[in-house]
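REQUEST ID: PR-0412
SUBMITTED BY: lab tech R.K.
PRIORITY: routine
TASK: structure prediction, single protein chain
INPUT:
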Amino acid sequence: MEELMPDSQQNVPEQTQSEADASSADRSLKSAIEAIIYVASEPVSVEQIAKAVDNTSDAGDIEKARAATRTAVIRAIAQLQQEYQMDARGIEIREIAGGYKMFTKPEHHDTVRRFVKSLAPPLRLSMAALETLATIAYRQPLTAPEIQAVRGVQGTGVLKTLLDRKLIHTAGRKNVIGKPILYKTTREFLVQFGLGSVSDLPSMEEFEAVLKASFGELGGDIGEPTLPLEENVDGGFTRGEATSALADAGEDGSDSETKAEDQNDSADSDSHAS
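STATUS: complete
OUTPUT:
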């Protein structure tokens, strides 16, 4: 009887597998697009998304393949928008300013607003504080003189900042002359940098490169990139750049905390010199 079966029936498993592969590719594309829109702080365009997910560099007709990718991106975004419109979802994807961005739904305005108001302001550290923190993280436990020897500058003001921010804590005293205090990183340090333990730290060179790329010479905000949130006129919230983080910056763009640290360190240097 198998020999008498029509070819169309014999090919069913192959067609089903092909459809399954296509469905899997569509789901993968849709989830990738969802991730891109989620991490973007600004509206992301179809062209930007298509370029990020495009794998057609080796295709014969590149322009045709890229056009197909763009079409697939548009279709996937439409599907995501429809899924996020369900009552069970608290956020939605809106098309604004030629791109797409995630927003909380207006009906959750009061709840989200209460939550945002309860948040602590973003953690802001100077580059000096970040360098000191990195020194402690990779060489802990360390004393203040040992930190000074590595960095080449006094750092009492910076240590006070890190202690106040609960990024480091004292860990006893070193059994040497003068018995200086030892410093180690805290659980809060792990939370802020998304680490399971200090063993998860990248190499020192990679860490310094990330700090300079992320925060620049004047320092920056450390924390979950979803914060702070911006409130929109319709009551929804979305990701946004930290506008309040610069409120305490001086006219020259430097952080007031950085100036305080520098003043403390300068005072330390003067006292040692005298």
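NOTES: The longest strand covers residues 91-96.
REVIEWED BY: pending
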